[in-house]
Structures are given as C-alpha cells and as structure tokens.
C-alpha cells in the first residue's frame, strides 16, 4: 500500500487540477482495492458542497450533481456535518448515483488481499457500498473524499479505513481550495484580519475574534482570543472583573463553562464553515447568563457575537402585551427549572394575591368546572404531550365558589437543540363579553362564538354519557379500597361510544370492578353497553366467580343482545382476605403498580363476548398488599395507527410507573400523556389499597 500511496502522491502533486487528482487516486490507489469510482467534494461556506473532481462516473451524472446545497441529505453532506469517516450501504441516498461499472476494473482481482473480506460479487439485484471521509487541514474540513465499490464492503475494515484516511489527507493538501493553507501574501492576510476586526468593532453587540489552538492530533483543543471588541472593553453586557478577557488569552480561561457546549459549537463552525445562531442560549460571558449567540467563520478565524437577554425588559414586554389585548394574564413555565412566572393580572383572574404560589398548567383540571374536564384534558394533552400550540374555553372555579369563563392559549418554546425550554401563554376573561361586540371585531368574536358552540356540544355529549354511567370523577372508598374513575368520550361528540366501567359494593361485601368495550359507536353500541353492564351487576349478586360471570355474560351478548360483540374485564375483591379474583374476555389485562414498579397481570384465556355460543373463561387470583394500585382501562387509551398494540402497552407501562401525589393525579396524567390517536372512547379505573 505504501508504494501505491507514493505513486498517488507523486501523481497528485504534479497534477494541474483536482480532476486529475481524482483520476490519479482511482488509478494508483483505489482500483487495486476494488473501488470503481471516486469523487472529491470541496466544502463551501454555509455547509454546501461542490464537486471538485471525479473519476468512474458518467459525465451527465457528474454535471447533475455538480453542486449540493446545504441541508440536502447525501453521504458527503452527512460526513461534512459529523466530521468522521462513514460507511454507507446501497440503500443510502446516493450523492452522484450508483457507480456505473458492475465489476472491478481490469487488473484488479475481487479475491485479492487488498479487497476487504466478505464482499459478495455485484449482481443485478444488489448495489455496492461507499465510504466518505472528511479532508481536514488545521482542524477545518476543506472537503470530503467519497469512494464507491460495486460490492458490499465490511463497515469495520480497519485496514481499508486507514488507507482511505491517508488518501483523504493527501487530497486535502492538493485540493485547489481557498481554504487550504498555502503561501499567501502577508499584507493580504493582515488586511483581511484588519477588516474582520473593524467589523467586530462596528457591531452594536459585544463580540470576540477567535482562532483555533490545535492539539497534537491537529484538532481544536481551545480557542485563542485574537481581538476583543470595543463594547466588551467598555463592559457592555460583561463583568470584566470576573473574566480574564484579553488579546492572546484562552477562551476556556475566560469562560470555563464553554467546555460544556460552546467549545463544540465553535469546533463545528470552524471545521465546516456553517454559521450557527441560537436564541436564549446559556452563556457565562453574558451579564444575565442568557444571550442570543451568533458564530461565523472568516478564513481561519471565528467571529462570536452575543446579545444579552434582559429579564426585566422581557417581563415588561409581557405585561405590555397583556395590557394591550385587555384583561389578559400572561404566564411562563420554565421546563428546566420548574419556575413559574405570572404577571399581576393573572393573579387577579385567579382571585389570588401575588404572594400565593402560581398554579402549574398541568394542574389546570383541579381549578376547572367538572363539566369542562374533557375539553381541558384535550388542551393539556396537545400542549404538554404533543407539544403544539392549543387553546380552550372553560369555567375557572375561583376561591369562594365564584366561576369565571376563561379562554387560555399556550405554546411550547424549544431551544436550539430541539429540547423543550418553556411553556408560555395567556388567559383571557371572556365572562363580560356581549353579543353586540361581534360588530366591533368580527374575527375575534367569530372565533369565540365557534368555541362556545364547540364547548356546548362537548357538554351535551358529556351529559348524555353521564346519564348512562356515573360521573367520571366520582371517587369512592369501600372495604379499604380508594377507587377513582375517568371517562373520555370520542372527539366526534354526536357519536355515543360503547365503553363502560363499573365499581360497586355487592351484598356479599365483595367489590365488583369491571371495564368493557362494545364494538362500534352510536345508539346501538350505547344500548348494548347498558345491557351488558346492568346484566353483569345482576349476575354478580349470585356470588359466582369472575370466570362464571363471563360465561353467563357471553350468553347474554350472544342470545339476548342481537349478537353483539364486546371485550370486558371483571374482577371481584374480597376485603377479608385481600384477594382479587379476575377474568377477561378478549380485553387488555389490568396493570399492577407495586413498590415503585409496574407490570401487566398474566393474559388469561377468554374469547370476545358474543363471538361464540359456548365459551370458557380462565380465572386468575392476585393477593394484594397495602399500597398496591390496580389500573383497568379500555383500548381507546393507547390505540395508535402507526404502532402495534404491544408497543402502545409498553409505553403505557412507562407512564404508569411515574410517581404521582394522588390516585386522581395519576389517572389525569395517564389521560394527558397517553399516546392514542384513534379518536375512540376511553374508560379508566384506578384502585388503591390502603
């Protein structure tokens, strides 16, 4: 291999342009390895790539891929971004397309010692492989070398990787690029530096001109401060007595926290030339600790500019925005620290004093009217789980029993890394609105009217469900059990679903717990739900076990209810022995939470209700302990169109294992963060043993 490298280097150094370099690399070094095509990409400012030379590809294909804009997902672009050698299978999006030769070139043997082992010959149904490696000069990626094979190459061939990296280093020295170090006129370099210094001093914000300090591996280990702008020297936004900022000094000495993230961003900009900008980024040099930061490369230097965020000005702007709209209270919840900020108007809307603790958005249900719980739950699910902007109208219960009609709008705020930084929004008191205001603001009042109609339909659907079943927030304590239930109807309010739940103390002192789901929607499903639920109550008074109750209920579904089909879980709890007997009919098994962990109960045998005339059901037994929590639910809580049911059950288990202050809060969190998207009814029972 050393002889090939010397031959390739001799030919490359004598070449007139990069096109000749690419042909020389393929002929002298890469063809003996079995490669059939090579491309030399030149890195341009902003993350773009230009084809500086190629060999082994067709002319038409090379013309089509002469330039790759920033953000286009090609193998070379990925290597430029990640700055490391990468192997790509044939399924990867090609940069110039697949190399046209289908066999190694003449003179090379597929079975030679230099060919990576394990590569099958190419046939008409199989693509090749390619490797991309960055070409680095003084810590800066000046281009990408891409090599293609017509057969699969092992991704962990260390010998081939070292040979390719050596060729990339050779290309980096010979690439005809303005970013490669070469003898330059000192006066021109001084003029360019003076121009950058003038730009830094002319900016209205503090700035530093930095140059990379390379380690023994020729990679940036720190950045030297080449110039400090006049605004920094005056102390604008910087506590100079706290930081040793001076020309010739080290950035890590002036800002030790730069090692946590800023240094990596500087290395990325210095290497690729792609600018970086971020709002509200933590910055030690900033007087407030948070700033808008901009990083751009200029030749071998990086210009760092920042603008401080003034917390007082931010709060003043929030108050001014709320006063302009009228009767609006603004808030912001920091997702990292948990800090909640309210303005004075929001304390007034809630009927609280500014010394009281703000109410977290996640606990909005605790202060809303029970009839609005479903609408508030959907709003919280959209904002806190799906992380999208949402709005909802509801009735706010204030101290003293006074209720006010409110409209709340909230939106998530994301940082430069895509993580949630905060949730902010505003409440508006709409209690005093009058229909005559429609003429004053058509757009605003049409929206309010639409929301009022939607809220009325939601309340009507919820009242219809509550006429069939007990209120979803009705909790009960019986025989040492604390029982809480939740019901969430489908978003299509005019369709009444077939989900049901029940929790009742029997004459035998046992407690009957059940959930079920009749197939379909509409009046027929609701009627069938009432038949099965009431039949199960009556059958349970006989003293029979859950398996026998399921057998009888199957006969009811098959013969007496127009052959409906349904799933169900039935459980009987004996308070004297603390034993739970249960059976299932095609339903999802309950979840047991114990000692900070959670798991599903075993899947017992039992077909759908009404599916077969004669059906047998298996019965399970569970010894409960103090502090245990049992969760029973219908599939509307977890069903998704893009995942199988097992994946959805595992996600529900992960949510259920989270800590919760009360059983009611646990059920509310399950409804908020469940990942369903099928618009189906949902029933949820929580049972906690004292």
Automatic annotation (TrEMBL):
<dbReference type="InterPro" id="IPR000700">
    <property type="entry name" value="PAS-assoc_C"/>
</dbReference>
<dbReference type="Pfam" id="PF08447">
    <property type="entry name" value="PAS_3"/>
</dbReference>
<dbReference type="Pfam" id="PF07228">
    <property type="entry name" value="SpoIIE"/>
</dbReference>
<feature type="compositionally biased region" description="Basic and acidic residues">
    <location>
        <begin position="112"/>
        <end position="128"/>
    </location>
</feature>
<feature type="region of interest" description="Disordered">
    <location>
        <begin position="91"/>
        <end position="130"/>
    </location>
</feature>
<dbReference type="GO" id="GO:0004722">
    <property type="term" value="F:protein serine/threonine phosphatase activity"/>
</dbReference>
<dbReference type="InterPro" id="IPR036457">
    <property type="entry name" value="PPM-type-like_dom_sf"/>
</dbReference>
<dbReference type="InterPro" id="IPR003018">
    <property type="entry name" value="GAF"/>
</dbReference>
<dbReference type="InterPro" id="IPR029016">
    <property type="entry name" value="GAF-like_dom_sf"/>
</dbReference>
<protein>
    <submittedName>
        <fullName>GAF domain-containing SpoIIE family protein phosphatase</fullName>
        <ecNumber>3.1.3.16</ecNumber>
    </submittedName>
</protein>
<dbReference type="InterPro" id="IPR000014">
    <property type="entry name" value="PAS"/>
</dbReference>
<keyword id="KW-0378">Hydrolase</keyword>
<feature type="compositionally biased region" description="Pro residues">
    <location>
        <begin position="97"/>
        <end position="108"/>
    </location>
</feature>
<dbReference type="InterPro" id="IPR001932">
    <property type="entry name" value="PPM-type_phosphatase-like_dom"/>
</dbReference>
<dbReference type="InterPro" id="IPR035965">
    <property type="entry name" value="PAS-like_dom_sf"/>
</dbReference>
<dbReference type="InterPro" id="IPR052016">
    <property type="entry name" value="Bact_Sigma-Reg"/>
</dbReference>
<dbReference type="Pfam" id="PF13185">
    <property type="entry name" value="GAF_2"/>
</dbReference>
<feature type="domain" description="PAC">
    <location>
        <begin position="390"/>
        <end position="442"/>
    </location>
</feature>
<dbReference type="InterPro" id="IPR013655">
    <property type="entry name" value="PAS_fold_3"/>
</dbReference>
């Amino acid at each position: 291999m050393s002889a090939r490298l010397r031959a390739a280097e001799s030919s490359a150094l004598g070449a007139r342009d990069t096109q000749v370099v690419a042909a020389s690399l393929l002929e002298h070094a890469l063809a003996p390895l079995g490669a059939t095509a090579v491309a030399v990409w030149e890195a341009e400012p902003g993350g773009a790539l230009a084809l500086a030379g190629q060999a082994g590809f067709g002319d038409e294909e090379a013309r089509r891929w002469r330039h790759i804009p920033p953000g286009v997902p090609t193998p070379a672009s990925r290597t430029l971004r990640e700055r490391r050698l990468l192997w790509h299978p044939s399924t990867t999006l090609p940069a110039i397309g697949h190399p046209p030769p289908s066999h190694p070139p003449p003179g090379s043997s597929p079975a030679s010692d230099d060919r990576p082992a394990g590569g099958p010959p190419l046939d008409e149904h199989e693509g090749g492989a390619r490797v991309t490696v960055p070409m680095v000069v003084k810590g800066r990626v000046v281009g990408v070398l891409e090599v293609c094979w017509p057969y699969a190459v092992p991704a962990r061939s260390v010998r081939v990787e070292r040979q390719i990296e050596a060729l990339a280093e050779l290309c980096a020295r010979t690439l005809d690029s303005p970013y490669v170090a070469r003898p330059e006129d000192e006066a021109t370099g001084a003029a360019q530096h003076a121009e950058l210094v003038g730009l830094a001093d002319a900016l209205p914000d503090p700035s530093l001109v930095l140059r990379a300090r390379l380690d023994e591996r020729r990679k940036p280990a720190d950045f030297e401060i080449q110039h400090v702008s006049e605004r920094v020297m005056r102390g604008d936004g910087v506590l100079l007595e706290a930081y040793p900022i001076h020309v010739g000094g080290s950035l890590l000495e002036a800002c030790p926290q730069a090692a946590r993230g800023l240094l990596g961003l500087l290395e990325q900009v210095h290497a690729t030339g792609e600018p970086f900008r971020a709002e509200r980024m933590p910055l030690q040099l900033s007087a407030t600790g948070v700033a808008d930061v901009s990083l751009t490369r200029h030749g071998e230097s990086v210009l760092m500019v920042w603008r401080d965020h003034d917390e007082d000005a931010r709060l003043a702007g929030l108050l001014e925005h709320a006063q302009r709209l009228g009767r609006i209270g603004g808030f912001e919840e920091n997702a990292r620290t948990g800090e909640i900020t309210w303005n004075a108007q929001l304390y007034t809307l809630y009927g609280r004093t500014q010394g009281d603790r703000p109410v977290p958005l996640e606990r909005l249900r605790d202060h809303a009217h029970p009839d609005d719980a479903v609408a508030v739950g959907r709003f919280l699910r959209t904002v806190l789980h799906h992380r999208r902007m949402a709005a909802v109208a509801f009735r706010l219960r204030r101290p003293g029993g006074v209720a006010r009609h409110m409209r709340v709008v909230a939106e998530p705020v994301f940082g430069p890394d895509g993580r949630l930084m905060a949730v902010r929004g505003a409440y508006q008191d709409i209690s005093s609105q009058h229909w005559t205001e429609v003429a004053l603001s058509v757009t605003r009042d049409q929206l309010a009217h639409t929301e009022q109609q939607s809220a009325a339909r939601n309340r009507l659907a919820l009242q219809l469900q509550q006429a069939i079943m007990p209120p979803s927030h009705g909790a009960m304590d019986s025989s040492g059990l604390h029982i809480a239930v939740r019901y969430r109807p489908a978003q299509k309010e005019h369709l009444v679903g077939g989900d049901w739940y029940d929790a009742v103390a029997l004459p035998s002192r046992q407690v009957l717990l059940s959930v079920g789901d009749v197939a379909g929607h509409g009046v027929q499903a609701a009627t069938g739900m009432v038949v099965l639920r009431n039949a199960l109550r009556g059958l349970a008074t006989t003293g029979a076990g859950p398996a026998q109750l399921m057998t009888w209920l199957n006969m009811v579904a098959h013969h007496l209810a127009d052959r409906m089909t349904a799933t169900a879980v039935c459980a009987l709890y004996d308070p004297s022995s603390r034993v739970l007997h249960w059976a299932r009919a095609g339903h999802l098994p309950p979840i047991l939470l114990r000692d900070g962990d959670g798991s599903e109960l075993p899947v017992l045998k039992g077909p759908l209700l009404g599916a077969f005339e004669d059906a047998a059901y298996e019965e399970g037994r569970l010894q409960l302990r103090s502090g245990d929590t049992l969760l029973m639910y219908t599939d509307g809580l977890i069903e998704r169109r893009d995942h199988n049911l097992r994946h959805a059950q595992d996600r529900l288990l992960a949510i259920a294992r989270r800590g919760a202050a009360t059983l009611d809060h646990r059920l509310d969190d399950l409804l908020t963060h469940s990942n369903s998207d099928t618009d189906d009814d949902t029933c949820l029972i929580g049972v906690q043993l004292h």
